[in-house]
Protein backbone atom coordinates (compact mmCIF):
# COMPACT_ATOMS: atom_id res chain seq x y z
CA UNK A 1 0.00 0.00 0.00
CA UNK A 2 1.49 3.34 -1.06
CA UNK A 3 2.13 6.19 1.33
CA UNK A 4 -0.12 8.44 -0.73
CA UNK A 5 -3.04 6.05 -0.32
CA UNK A 6 -2.37 5.68 3.41
CA UNK A 7 -2.24 9.45 3.89
CA UNK A 8 -5.47 9.92 1.94
CA UNK A 9 -7.26 7.19 3.88
CA UNK A 10 -6.07 8.69 7.17
CA UNK A 11 -7.45 12.11 6.25
CA UNK A 12 -10.79 10.91 4.90
CA UNK A 13 -11.10 8.19 7.56
CA UNK A 14 -10.34 10.68 10.31
CA UNK A 15 -13.15 12.96 9.20
CA UNK A 16 -15.48 9.98 8.77
CA UNK A 17 -14.77 8.70 12.29
CA UNK A 18 -15.24 12.18 13.71
CA UNK A 19 -18.57 12.45 11.90
CA UNK A 20 -19.76 9.06 13.21
CA UNK A 21 -18.70 9.85 16.77
CA UNK A 22 -19.84 13.48 16.66
CA UNK A 23 -22.39 13.23 19.52
CA UNK A 24 -19.70 11.68 21.73
CA UNK A 25 -16.61 13.74 20.94
CA UNK A 26 -18.13 17.18 20.22
CA UNK A 27 -17.71 19.30 23.37
CA UNK A 28 -20.86 21.37 22.76
CA UNK A 29 -24.18 21.34 20.95
CA UNK A 30 -23.35 22.68 17.45
CA UNK A 31 -26.41 24.97 17.30
CA UNK A 32 -26.44 26.12 20.94
CA UNK A 33 -26.07 29.89 21.15
CA UNK A 34 -24.26 31.37 24.13
CA UNK A 35 -24.54 35.15 24.13
CA UNK A 36 -21.87 35.47 26.80
CA UNK A 37 -19.31 33.62 24.64
CA UNK A 38 -19.67 35.52 21.37
CA UNK A 39 -16.56 35.86 19.14
CA UNK A 40 -14.11 34.34 21.57
CA UNK A 41 -10.64 33.39 20.23
CA UNK A 42 -9.30 29.83 20.51
CA UNK A 43 -8.90 28.80 24.15
CA UNK A 44 -8.98 25.72 26.37
CA UNK A 45 -12.76 26.03 26.70
CA UNK A 46 -13.22 26.53 22.95
CA UNK A 47 -10.15 25.16 21.06
CA UNK A 48 -11.30 26.64 17.73
CA UNK A 49 -13.01 29.70 19.26
CA UNK A 50 -16.66 30.73 18.95
CA UNK A 51 -18.65 32.52 16.25
CA UNK A 52 -20.83 35.61 16.36
CA UNK A 53 -23.66 33.63 17.95
CA UNK A 54 -21.45 32.13 20.64
CA UNK A 55 -21.49 28.67 19.03
CA UNK A 56 -18.44 26.45 19.43
CA UNK A 57 -16.53 26.25 16.12
CA UNK A 58 -14.95 22.86 16.86
CA UNK A 59 -18.33 21.26 17.57
CA UNK A 60 -19.79 22.74 14.40
CA UNK A 61 -16.85 21.45 12.33
CA UNK A 62 -17.26 17.95 13.76
CA UNK A 63 -21.00 17.86 13.05
CA UNK A 64 -20.46 19.63 9.72
CA UNK A 65 -18.28 16.70 8.61
CA UNK A 66 -21.45 14.59 8.55
CA UNK A 67 -23.12 16.89 6.04
CA UNK A 68 -20.07 17.44 3.84
CA UNK A 69 -19.19 13.74 3.65
CA UNK A 70 -22.81 12.97 2.83
CA UNK A 71 -22.72 15.54 0.03
CA UNK A 72 -19.49 14.07 -1.35
CA UNK A 73 -20.84 10.50 -1.26
CA UNK A 74 -24.34 11.03 -2.64
CA UNK A 75 -23.16 13.72 -5.05
CA UNK A 76 -20.81 11.18 -6.65
CA UNK A 77 -22.93 8.02 -6.44
CA UNK A 78 -25.88 9.03 -8.63
CA UNK A 79 -23.80 10.65 -11.42
CA UNK A 80 -21.56 7.55 -11.41
CA UNK A 81 -24.52 5.18 -11.82
CA UNK A 82 -26.35 7.30 -14.40
CA UNK A 83 -23.20 8.06 -16.41
CA UNK A 84 -22.07 4.44 -16.36
CA UNK A 85 -25.39 3.14 -17.72
CA UNK A 86 -25.72 5.84 -20.40
CA UNK A 87 -22.08 5.60 -21.48
CA UNK A 88 -22.23 1.81 -21.68
CA UNK A 89 -25.38 1.87 -23.82
CA UNK A 90 -24.01 4.58 -26.10
CA UNK A 91 -20.70 2.80 -26.68
CA UNK A 92 -22.16 -0.67 -27.11
CA UNK A 93 -25.25 0.08 -29.23
CA UNK A 94 -23.65 2.82 -31.36
CA UNK A 95 -25.45 4.29 -34.35
CA UNK A 96 -28.25 6.78 -33.80
CA UNK A 97 -28.42 6.01 -30.07
CA UNK A 98 -24.78 6.91 -29.63
CA UNK A 99 -25.15 10.06 -31.73
CA UNK A 100 -28.17 11.33 -29.78
CA UNK A 101 -26.60 10.67 -26.38
CA UNK A 102 -23.31 12.30 -27.39
CA UNK A 103 -25.13 15.41 -28.63
CA UNK A 104 -26.96 15.56 -25.29
CA UNK A 105 -23.59 15.47 -23.54
CA UNK A 106 -22.30 18.23 -25.82
CA UNK A 107 -25.29 20.42 -24.91
CA UNK A 108 -24.69 19.96 -21.18
CA UNK A 109 -20.96 20.61 -21.54
CA UNK A 110 -21.70 23.84 -23.42
CA UNK A 111 -22.87 25.41 -20.15
CA UNK A 112 -20.46 26.27 -17.30
CA UNK A 113 -20.79 23.58 -14.62
CA UNK A 114 -21.48 25.83 -11.64
CA UNK A 115 -23.81 28.14 -13.57
CA UNK A 116 -25.92 25.19 -14.73
CA UNK A 117 -26.04 23.81 -11.19
CA UNK A 118 -27.08 27.17 -9.76
CA UNK A 119 -29.84 27.44 -12.37
CA UNK A 120 -31.27 24.03 -11.51
CA UNK A 121 -31.10 24.68 -7.76
CA UNK A 122 -32.72 28.11 -8.22
CA UNK A 123 -35.63 26.42 -10.04
CA UNK A 124 -36.01 23.59 -7.50
CA UNK A 125 -35.40 25.74 -4.42
CA UNK A 126 -32.57 25.80 -1.86
CA UNK A 127 -31.65 22.64 0.03
CA UNK A 128 -29.65 19.43 -0.09
CA UNK A 129 -32.24 17.58 -2.18
CA UNK A 130 -31.98 20.21 -4.90
CA UNK A 131 -28.19 19.96 -4.76
CA UNK A 132 -28.27 16.17 -5.23
CA UNK A 133 -30.72 16.45 -8.14
CA UNK A 134 -28.58 19.11 -9.80
CA UNK A 135 -25.44 16.99 -9.39
CA UNK A 136 -27.21 13.96 -10.87
CA UNK A 137 -28.45 15.97 -13.86
CA UNK A 138 -25.11 17.63 -14.58
CA UNK A 139 -22.35 15.41 -13.18
CA UNK A 140 -23.06 12.20 -15.11
CA UNK A 141 -21.57 13.41 -18.41
CA UNK A 142 -17.93 12.85 -17.43
CA UNK A 143 -18.62 9.26 -16.37
CA UNK A 144 -20.60 8.60 -19.55
CA UNK A 145 -17.71 9.76 -21.75
CA UNK A 146 -15.20 7.63 -19.81
CA UNK A 147 -17.32 4.47 -19.96
CA UNK A 148 -18.26 4.99 -23.63
CA UNK A 149 -14.60 5.29 -24.61
CA UNK A 150 -13.75 2.07 -22.78
CA UNK A 151 -16.71 0.15 -24.23
CA UNK A 152 -15.82 1.22 -27.78
CA UNK A 153 -12.41 -0.41 -27.31
CA UNK A 154 -13.45 -3.49 -25.33
CA UNK A 155 -16.41 -4.55 -27.49
CA UNK A 156 -13.91 -5.55 -30.19
CA UNK A 157 -11.73 -7.50 -27.76
CA UNK A 158 -11.32 -11.25 -28.27
CA UNK A 159 -13.33 -12.26 -25.20
CA UNK A 160 -16.25 -10.03 -26.26
CA UNK A 161 -16.26 -11.43 -29.78
CA UNK A 162 -16.08 -14.97 -28.33
CA UNK A 163 -19.03 -14.25 -26.03
CA UNK A 164 -21.12 -13.09 -28.98
CA UNK A 165 -20.06 -16.16 -31.00
CA UNK A 166 -21.24 -18.42 -28.18
CA UNK A 167 -24.71 -16.95 -28.48
CA UNK A 168 -24.76 -14.84 -25.32
CA UNK A 169 -27.34 -12.07 -25.34
CA UNK A 170 -26.22 -8.49 -25.97
CA UNK A 171 -27.35 -7.53 -22.47
CA UNK A 172 -25.20 -10.26 -20.91
CA UNK A 173 -22.18 -9.36 -23.02
CA UNK A 174 -22.50 -5.71 -22.02
CA UNK A 175 -23.22 -6.01 -18.30
CA UNK A 176 -21.42 -9.27 -17.49
CA UNK A 177 -18.33 -9.01 -19.66
CA UNK A 178 -17.67 -5.47 -20.89
CA UNK A 179 -18.86 -3.23 -18.08
CA UNK A 180 -16.88 -4.89 -15.24
CA UNK A 181 -13.71 -4.42 -17.28
CA UNK A 182 -14.39 -0.77 -18.11
CA UNK A 183 -15.22 0.81 -14.74
CA UNK A 184 -11.68 1.13 -13.37
CA UNK A 185 -11.21 4.60 -14.84
CA UNK A 186 -14.56 5.79 -13.51
CA UNK A 187 -13.84 4.48 -10.01
CA UNK A 188 -10.57 6.39 -9.97
CA UNK A 189 -12.23 9.49 -11.38
CA UNK A 190 -14.98 9.41 -8.75
CA UNK A 191 -12.37 10.14 -6.06
CA UNK A 192 -11.32 13.29 -7.90
CA UNK A 193 -14.97 14.06 -8.61
CA UNK A 194 -15.66 13.88 -4.87
CA UNK A 195 -13.35 16.88 -4.52
CA UNK A 196 -15.39 18.81 -7.10
CA UNK A 197 -18.66 17.81 -5.40
CA UNK A 198 -17.33 18.81 -1.99
CA UNK A 199 -16.17 22.21 -3.24
CA UNK A 200 -19.40 22.72 -5.21
CA UNK A 201 -21.48 21.86 -2.14
CA UNK A 202 -19.50 24.32 -0.03
CA UNK A 203 -19.87 27.00 -2.73
CA UNK A 204 -23.63 26.42 -3.03
CA UNK A 205 -24.02 26.64 0.76
CA UNK A 206 -21.83 29.75 0.79
CA UNK A 207 -24.26 31.36 -1.67
CA UNK A 208 -27.23 30.38 0.50
CA UNK A 209 -28.68 27.78 -1.89
CA UNK A 210 -27.46 24.61 -0.18
CA UNK A 211 -27.69 23.58 3.45
CA UNK A 212 -29.70 26.11 5.40
CA UNK A 213 -28.78 27.63 8.80
CA UNK A 214 -28.53 26.81 11.63
CA UNK A 215 -27.31 23.40 10.35
CA UNK A 216 -23.56 23.04 10.79
CA UNK A 217 -21.92 22.89 7.36
CA UNK A 218 -18.46 24.12 6.44
CA UNK A 219 -19.52 26.32 3.51
CA UNK A 220 -22.15 28.05 5.64
CA UNK A 221 -19.58 28.57 8.40
CA UNK A 222 -17.19 30.27 5.97
CA UNK A 223 -20.01 32.51 4.71
CA UNK A 224 -21.12 33.42 8.22
CA UNK A 225 -17.59 34.33 9.28
CA UNK A 226 -16.84 36.49 6.24
CA UNK A 227 -18.21 39.64 7.88
CA UNK A 228 -15.96 39.11 10.90
CA UNK A 229 -12.78 38.17 9.05
CA UNK A 230 -10.74 41.13 10.30
CA UNK A 231 -11.63 40.66 13.96
CA UNK A 232 -12.35 36.92 14.21
CA UNK A 233 -10.23 35.05 11.66
CA UNK A 234 -10.87 31.67 13.32
CA UNK A 235 -14.53 31.61 12.26
CA UNK A 236 -13.57 31.13 8.60
CA UNK A 237 -10.08 29.65 8.95
CA UNK A 238 -10.93 26.33 10.59
CA UNK A 239 -13.92 25.32 8.42
CA UNK A 240 -11.94 26.45 5.36
CA UNK A 241 -9.01 24.25 6.38
CA UNK A 242 -11.41 21.35 6.91
CA UNK A 243 -12.68 21.68 3.33
CA UNK A 244 -9.11 21.78 2.01
CA UNK A 245 -7.93 18.78 4.06
CA UNK A 246 -10.90 16.57 3.15
CA UNK A 247 -10.58 17.48 -0.53
CA UNK A 248 -6.83 16.77 -0.35
CA UNK A 249 -7.57 13.36 1.18
CA UNK A 250 -9.93 12.40 -1.65
CA UNK A 251 -7.40 13.64 -4.21
CA UNK A 252 -4.59 11.53 -2.74
CA UNK A 253 -6.79 8.42 -2.70
CA UNK A 254 -7.66 9.01 -6.36
CA UNK A 255 -3.99 9.48 -7.32
CA UNK A 256 -2.95 6.32 -5.47
CA UNK A 257 -5.74 4.23 -7.01
CA UNK A 258 -4.86 5.55 -10.46
CA UNK A 259 -1.25 4.46 -10.04
CA UNK A 260 -2.24 1.07 -8.67
CA UNK A 261 -4.70 0.37 -11.51
CA UNK A 262 -2.52 1.90 -14.20
CA UNK A 263 -5.18 4.50 -14.93
CA UNK A 264 -4.09 7.98 -16.01
CA UNK A 265 -6.65 10.70 -15.48
From TrEMBL:
It is a multi-pass membrane protein. It holds the Pfam family BPD_transp_1. The chain crosses the membrane at residues 76-97, 104-124, 130-147, 185-211, 232-253. InterPro entries: BP-dependent_transpt_permease (IPR050366), MetI-like (IPR000515), MetI-like_sf (IPR035906), OppC_N (IPR025966). CDD domains: TM_PBP2 (cd06261). Belongs to the binding-protein-dependent transport system permease family. Keywords: Cell membrane, Membrane, Peptide transport, Protein transport, Signal, Transmembrane, Transmembrane helix, Transport. The keyword Cell membrane applies. GO terms for biological process: peptide transport; protein transport; transmembrane transport. The keyword Cell membrane applies. SUPFAM superfamilies: MetI-like. This is Peptide/nickel transport system permease protein. It is found in: Cell membrane. Residues 65-254 form the ABC transmembrane type-1 domain. Residues 1-21 form the signal peptide. GO terms for cellular component: plasma membrane.
